[in-house]
Design brief:
By secondary structure, the protein is α+β, with helices and mostly antiparallel strands. The protein has helices at about 5-10, 35-40, 140, 155-175, 180-200, 210, 215-225, 235-240, 245-255, 260-280, 285-290, 295-305, 310-315, and strands at about 15-25, 30, 45-55, 60-65, 70, 75-80, 85-90, 95-100, 105, 110-115, 120-130, 145-150. It has a seven-stranded mixed β-sheet. A five-stranded mixed β-sheet has the order 5-4-7-2-8, with no helix packed on it. Helix 7 packs across helix 8 and helix 11 (about 285-290) crosses helix 12. The longest helix has 22 residues, at about 180-200. The radius of gyration is 21 Å and the shape is globular.
Length: about 325
């Protein structure tokens, strides 16, 4: 398994709540949906990733705390990986309505919004993708607050365009099974958005996604993720990727921001936490699966990383 797939697997992406929104100018809406609002349909999730797909018309979008506003038109997709509070509308200078106050629920996990002053129309499909362990996830931590994906650009444009048109039709029709179909589409969208963002990073950029573009660092990440329980050393890793110990350590640290073995420990903790959340397996078994030869050793490492022992962390619900 490649490193990106492994990180996204541990994040446990789950799509599940969608809405069709229709606005008419002038309008302005502030939006941030809390995970608990989606829990009745999606189930428990510690974090939400939000996306909006513009079907018709256009809008302006600005994330709270940022000065720049984004112009969006038909075919544009915008993702907010950290679910930041954002304002959307035809005019961002007018008072905003709280999005949660105008959402109309319906059966099957599909929702709708109709709001505005009766002028020019904007239609979009909004979705919410749940995930776990967002705070320490290297992919989510590497993404910007807003990620724009135009379906008019790139070789994958046609499948993205047709996929979202299908999603829009599913939301509008509310056919049986739409919720399951849309959940899978959301996961595909997020993976494609991450891949596109990584491919367009400028030269000289550092960070986890930038590391994937360096063949030696990418190979090292893939090896660490493929065999997380192995007693790796930097010498072993360097030999496997064709670099000396010092050359790999320097390159890995410069791009990823942490030495290889520190990265491995942090990722072991992320995987261990995910296993604690999702299973009732004994601590010793979970510890062994991420490279610790005893429950005590795993507990010490976990407490050092998270500030609380794994048993207490599990009882508190992660």
């Amino acid at each position: 398994m490649d490193a990106l797939s492994d990180v996204l697997r541990v994040a446990h992406l789950v799509g599940g709540v969608f809405l069709h929104a229709e606005f008419s100018a002038p309008w302005c809406m502030a939006a941030r949906i809390a995970p608990e609002h989606c829990a009745p349909v999606m189930g428990p999730a510690s974090h939400l990733i939000v996306y909006h797909y513009i079907v018709e018309g256009g809008l302006l979008l600005r994330v709270e705390g940022e000065d720049d506003q984004m112009v969006l038109g038909p075919g544009d997709v915008v993702l907010l990986p950290r679910n930041d509070l954002h304002v959307m509308g035809s005019d961002l200078t007018m008072p905003s309505v709280n999005g949660t106050e105008i959402i109309q629920p319906s059966d099957g996990g599909l929702f709708s919004i109709r709001h505005g002053g009766g002028g020019a129309r904007t239609r979009m499909v909004c979705g919410f993708l749940g995930c776990d362990g967002a705070e320490g996830n290297p992919v989510l931590s590497a993404l910007p607050s807003v990620l724009k994906l135009s379906v008019e650009e790139g070789g994958a444009a046609e499948w993205i365009r047709s996929t979202f048109q299908f999603a829009a039709d599913e939301v509008a029709s509310g056919r049986p099974g739409s919720e399951t179909v849309l959940a899978k589409l959301s996961e595909l969208l997020f993976v494609e958005a991450v891949r596109r963002y990584a491919e367009t990073l400028p030269d000289g950029r550092t960070g986890w996604l930038a590391g994937l573009r360096d063949r030696h660092v990418a190979r090292a990440l893939a090896l660490l993720h493929r065999d997380i329980s192995r007693a790796w050393t930097v010498d072993d890793l360097g030999c496997a990727v064709g670099l000396s110990r010092s050359a790999l350590a320097d390159r890995f640290t410069r791009l990823i921001g942490t030495p290889p073995m520190h990265y491995l420990v942090a990722w072991r903790m992320q995987v261990g936490a995910q296993k604690l959340r999702s299973s009732n397996a004994p601590l010793a078994r979970i510890g062994a699966s991420v490279g610790y030869d005893s429950e005590a050793a795993f507990s010490r490492a976990f407490k050092k990383h998270f500030g609380v022992a794994p048993a207490a962390w599990r009882r508190a619900g992660g």
